Prior knowledge:
The strands form five sheets. Strands 3-4-7 form a three-stranded antiparallel β-sheet. It has a two-stranded parallel sheet with strand order 1-2. It is elongated. It is mainly α and about 500 residues long. It starts with 7 loop residues before the first strand and ends with a helix. The protein is built from 20 helices and eleven strands. It has helices spanning about 20-35, 55-70, 90-105, 115-125, 140-150, 195-205, 220-235, 270-275, 280-285, 300-305, 320-335, 340-345, 365-375, 385-390, 400-405, 410-425, 430-440, 445-460, 465-475, 475-490, and strands at about 10, 40-45, 105-110, 155-160, 165-170, 175-180, 185-190, 210-215, 245-250, 250, 320. Among the domains are: about 90-250, Glutamyl-tRNA Synthetase, Domain 3 (Glutamyl-tRNA Synthetase, domain 3); about 400-490, Arc Repressor Mutant, subunit A (Orthogonal Bundle). It binds glutamic acid and zinc ion. Zinc ion binds near residues 111 and 136.
Amino acid sequence: xxxxxxxxxxxxxxxxxxxxxxxxxxxxxxxxxxxxxxxxxxxxxxxxxxxxxxxxxxxxxxxxxxxxxxxxxxxxxxxxxxxxxxxxxxxxxxxxxxxxxxxxxxxxxxxxxxxxxxxxxxxxxxxxxxxxxxxxxxxxxxxxxxxxxxxxxxxxxxxxxxxxxxxxxxxxxxxxxxxxxxxxxxxxxxxxxxxxxxxxxxxxxxxxxxxxxxxxxxxxxxxxxxxxxxxxxxxxxxxxxxxxxxxxxxxxxxxxxxxxxxxxxxxxxxxxxxxxxxxxxxxxxxxxxxxxxxxxxxxxxxxxxxxxxxxxxxxxxxxxxxxxxxxxxxxxxxxxxxxxxxxxxxxxxxxxxxxxxxxxxxxxxxxxxxxxxxxxxxxxxxxxxxxxxxxxxxxxxxxxxxxxxxxxxxxxxxxxxxxxxxxxxxxxxxxxxxxxxxxxxxxxxxxxxxxxxxxxxxxxxxxxxxxxxxxxxxxxxxxxxxxxxxxxxxxx
Length: 492
Ligand code: GLU
Ligand code: ZN
């Protein structure tokens, strides 16, 4: 279908803390949709809640978006024709719109106090009637308003919902209908003059000529209100057309409860700190409500962009599965070329992660072990413990590993292994393996049992990278020294 209107979507978070994975999925779907349609992604900061928004959260948000690899066509740091893109810098605009809505009768001053609203809502509930705002101030005369003001009452601005059913076709959920009793008049400006999300969000969507609003299902109830407001904005010349809306499914966490912002598993920083690759995390998050194909769930960001369509998003709640996220990330680690893997590991080889003296880091040993590590780690933070045996003067002391591996007669086994390893070919992991195999045979042990004490003597741990490659890289002299140290420890 030839579509004359270019796609314009927006990502418009409030900077109220650490970004969470639900927010990242919303950003991802908007970004992929924009890129798929060669459209425009507008990045807008909804920072009108001075009490909750902070400059620190704002900076964190931008840093997160950059780390994830998103780019935007309009917004902070890049500017654009609708600047500024921070709502805190657009207050005059909202005031102007609110004044015009009031003048045109699309909004009115409401003088009800919280106590009065609560009391009437409770009464309506008891009577089994709709409990939203009851329209008390819809038709106040000038005298009534003057009387309220003389009483010292303050007023909020309320939008007047038309008495009509609102129907729209959600891009994810199909046709949805809202009847007037379910969408009461709602506040758009606080008594202190501060405009609310209910006003600033659709006003900016209108002014920024957004064509598609893709956002979480939690915002579905605001959509009929926004459609009504849009109609008023069109009438007043602020908007051209009502955008299409698509509501992304809920993400469920543990125990089939909605993943909440406060859930530790929901924090983007957690994934970043554990060493997820951005493309691994994005691949996983794309699967929350969407699928690439029936038989492929590993894909690149470029493949996602090529295939992504909002019409393919599933309305059913998606389940957040950490194990699957990790498995997908591991796949992305395997797919890196060695050079990129080595570069990605860099931060985990330095303070505060490294548990060795910086001067003991050995670049050649790291380059040699890296390809083995690349086939094993799930997240990049795993790297430190997997390679520390190369850079520490002595292996880590892990009593649990020691107890587990030093069973039977470990001294006899280690003594035999030491002798055979001294005679082995240290340029061949195969030869080192045969040495330990032969030592095991002398003591009636299979390779798995025979190599456990050697691994713990040399690396300090029961699990790690392929042992014989590790020994080769560590070298004959240090390997034998460590076996000797273990033997001394066993001798007590
Ligand atoms: N600032 C709103 C939020 O963070 C944006 C909602 C929307 O996408 O309309 O939830
Ligand atoms: Zn009122």
